[in-house]
Design a protein that fits this description.
With about 325 residues, the protein is an all-alpha fold. The chain is built from 13 helices and 2 strands. The chain has 2 domains: about 130 residues, Cytochrome Bc1 Complex, Chain D, domain 2 (Orthogonal Bundle); about 130 residues, Cytochrome c-like domain (Cytochrome Bc1 Complex, Chain D, domain 2, Orthogonal Bundle), CATH 1.10.760.10.
Length: about 325
């Protein structure tokens, strides 16, 4: 009798352990996986290009200016600052985990990271250069010519190689090992009871319908203002600007919630200054919910568990310009 009881007890314990180990498979959110297959040569070259302000007309703005890797991959401004202090038209989305997105930019006009990387260089409101000028700068610098030869097998630098290298570097900017991921993988002590209650609310009230998967977003386009219209002075019209279809007006790519506590302010117009404000607005506009202060705080507590390990590396030393390198024109 005692042996039978012991066997039943051991079976019960093993069942609990098994359930804990497959917890991630039972949830609509999946842990962020560390990056696996990358081209190391392209990554190192792309890292330099990501930080190199000489790709801009002014010689002052780099990819990292708007996607600052010390600030959650954003600039923490409502809208970014472009060439000659121009105000950008839209909030800068985080570059962290951007390789998991269904498309790039709020309106999805770039299919992937490679296509996205070329846009800001030639945008007159951003880096305000041209692909031709940016390539002339790179081609004039012997150290870059040598590195492109090592990585791509040719001394002829073109925009395809430039954007491919930047995209390959950006693929490494994933943020695994958040406390919530640790919980998903079976560590029940990784988050508090309040944070877990916030996650339950997040699922039960419907946030999970759009914010799911590895990135808790980034995998669909949804209308901003499902229950009631979102009032803003921002002129962006989302996916409509790409498709021209009226049904896509004010549909934006659902932003990732990974590292969300670092990527304020929120929404495409940057009008929500805090997570508390953003949760309240989204509850009303998208779900028809008026959250109590307590429930709002629980959801915010959960969202703060989504901050993962931030990219960490030595800032690249950029190769020096030479006499024939085209000079920047920051004030023209």
């Amino acid at each position: 009798m005692k042996i039978k009881t012991l066997i039943l007890y051991l079976f019960f314990i093993s069942t609990i352990a098994c359930s804990s180990s497959i917890l991630a498979n039972d949830e609509p959110v999946k842990p962020i996986a560390p990056v696996k297959e990358i081209n190391l040569g392209q990554v190192e070259l792309g890292k330099k290009l990501f930080f190199d302000p000489r790709l801009s007309r002014s010689g002052f703005i780099s990819c990292n200016s708007c996607h600052n890797l010390s600030m959650g991959g954003t600039d923490n401004l409502k809208t970014s600052i472009g060439h000659k202090w121009q105000q950008g038209p839209i909030n800068s989305p985080t570059v962290l985990n951007s390789s998991l997105n269904i498309a790039q930019f709020w309106d999805g006009r770039a299919a992937d990271l490679k296509e996205q990387a070329g846009g800001p260089i030639a945008n007159p409101g951003e880096m305000a250069s041209t692909h031709t000028l940016a390539l002339d700068v790179l081609q004039s610098i012997p150290a870059y010519v040598r590195e492109f030869k090592q990585v791509f097998g040719t001394t002829e630098i073109n925009i395809e190689y430039v954007t491919e290298a930047i995209a390959e570097f950006e693929k490494t900017l994933v943020t695994p090992n958040s406390r919530f991921d640790q919980w998903l993988l079976g560590d029940e002590n990784a988050i508090t009871s309040t944070e877990l209650a916030g996650y339950s609310l997040f699922k039960n009230i419907g946030c999970i319908a759009c914010h799911n998967g590895e990135s808790l977003g980034g995998n669909s386009f949804q209308k901003m203002g499902l229950v009631s219209p979102y009032v803003t002075t921002n002129k962006a019209e989302g996916l409509f600007g790409v498709t021209g279809k009226d049904m896509d007006r004010f549909k934006f790519k659902v932003p990732t919630l990974r590292n969300i506590e670092l990527t304020y302010p929120y929404f495409h117009d940057g009008e929500a200054a805090t997570l508390t404000e953003a949760v309240s607005i989204m509850g009303k506009l998208q779900l028809g919910q008026n959250f109590t202060q307590e429930n709002n705080a629980k959801i915010v507590a959960f969202l703060k568990t989504l901050t993962g390990d931030q990219p960490s590396f030595i800032i690249p030393l950029l190769p020096a310009s030479v006499d024939k390198t085209p000079k920047p024109t920051p004030f023209d």
